[in-house]
Design goal:
This protein is mainly alpha-helical and 151 residues long. Helices cover 47% and strands 4% of the residues. A hairpin with a 4-residue loop joins strand 2 (98-99) and strand 3 (104-105).
């Protein structure tokens, strides 16, 4: 049996009453009425590159599966990917570089800066505009991805 030696008149419920009083007295009033924190929208590319490509493709009306397939096969979702350095640009005679998530080639697309090419949101916006305008064939993986999605 639990006895309260300090306050015998409170009997067995005494410790519980004291605990309740102590909790009320030390609990700050601003914690008593906690307001829910509104959820913030996290930009898609901050969640993941795959999520960002999917969201942007949906937004512009392009098959997200096609966009994700192209990016997966071109760069494995790496915005810092570099490729095709072993090839020579016929226009300049310099080595080519395919840059970023969508492997945008600097020989055939000198209008695309490195800043855009290596930016996941920037390159995705550029690439989806090209695909939307009927130029999906510029990516060597397009035919393969289109065939995979058709099965």
């Amino acid at each position: 049996m639990l006895r309260n030696s300090r306050y015998p008149s409170l009997g067995r419920t005494g410790p519980w009453i004291l605990l309740a009083l102590w909790t009320v007295l030390i609990t700050p009033t601003h914690l008593a009425a906690v307001q829910p924190v509104p959820l913030q929208r996290i930009p898609p590319f901050q969640l993941s590159t795959r999520h960002g490509v999917t969201a942007e493709a949906n937004q512009v009306g392009i098959s997200p599966g096609l966009a994700v397939c192209i990016v997966e096969h071109e760069s494995r979702f790496r915005a810092d990917a570099l490729g095709d350095g072993h090839l020579t640009c016929p226009r300049t005679g310099k080595p080519m570089r395919s840059r970023g998530l969508w492997q945008i080639n600097d020989c055939f697309h000198p209008e695309v800066s490195d800043e855009v090419a290596f930016s996941a949101p920037g390159s995705t916006e550029w690439a989806l505009a090209r695909i939307k305008s009927g130029r999906a064939g510029e990516w060597s993986t397009y035919e393969r991805c289109n065939a995979l999605l058709s099965e």
